[in-house]
Design brief:
Shape: elongated
Number of strands: 7
Order of helices and strands: EEEEHHHHHHHHHHEEEHHHHHH
Distance between the termini: 81 Å
CATH topology of the largest domain: hpI Integrase, Chain A
CATH architecture of the largest domain: Orthogonal Bundle
Structural class: alpha+beta
Helix content: 40-55%
Radius of gyration: 28 Å
Strand order of the largest sheet: 1-2-3-4
Number of domains: 3
Largest sheet: 4 strands, mixed
Length: about 400
Amino acid sequence: MPVKGCGGLMLRASSRGKTFYLKVRPPGERHPVAIKLGVYGSGDRALTLKQAKAKAEQWKEDIRGGIDPRNKTRNAQQSKYIDIVQEFLERGKTTKGELWKPKTAKDYRTALLSPKLKKIHMLPVATITEDQIQDVINLLESEGKYTASRRYLSYLKTFFAWCRKKKQGYIPSNQALPTEGVELENASDNARERYLSPEEIKVFWQATMQLPYPWQHYYKLALLTGQRMGNVATIKRSDVENNIWIQKENKANRLNLIPLNNLAQAVLTDCPEYCDNYLTSTGDSPIQQSSKAKKKLDDQIKIIAEQNNLKGIFEESWVNHDLRRTITTSLRKIGINRSTCSAILNHAEQGVTAKNYDQYDLLDEKTQAMQAWNNYLNELIHGKSQKIINLALHR
């Protein structure tokens, strides 16, 4: 059945649904042929009437220019993974069309260009299989990198879904994505429950003392503030006013005010003033998160535990993010309510009232909570309950 308003466009109905075709004479053909445009409907794999007309007009323009749109589609589907990833990264936009934040762009680049994906780098994206992606996820999990496996899969899902969009056409619209059946075999391990016990906190603090600047200060601030490691690494002097860390950029994309207790203030005061960044190894830029620093800290923890014949200390592995769970759990144990803990972590409360009407920043409550955390740690680590203004940090 011809579609009005677009010459050559037809809609054919069958028991399996309706399909758009364009009757044209492509380059090299002696007679007009009907070329399938796509299935009628809504969603990522279908065409609306408006979209079908636009695609038909584009194809007719290609043909007038001597281009066979069928070859154009076939060529797109032969595009190599590594080349399409570069295009995707250069585009650098969310599904809403907003530009990625620098950290988001870096995380996508790290995952999609990972050496662990090297086997698929030169393959056409349309030929990559579920088994190949599952092998990568299984490898990450076999190394104990459960968080990384979850993130890699998430980034790959977004990338391949983008490849299948009609505008890109790198994967046929009726083809399943290679990530659709991939599973996290140890998905339960991603929802971690690990936090440091009081005894482990004390050993952790002692171990940080053996690290040089900036890593000693980095790990102490992470424990003292409960903030994400990436934010701790980039804390600036210009972000601190009246002993409040004004965190403008973070994962939640929300302003977060972090009261700095006496211990945190002492750590910052002890940082050499090379530049605006408190933590720097170059003198002019913030530090980058380092697995080597974590290993050195773990080595010091092991030495302290062995020298003091401590049993049950750090027998279970821990990751940096567990420090956020540690401060939350500890604050709850000393009587701080969950809403205040959530505000410190910059977690969003659920519900219409919390999201749209309640604009109270809980700064007073957070200040009291952080001072209570200061007193708890001071007594735990030093056996003192009074406030400390100047803390000697040994390197």
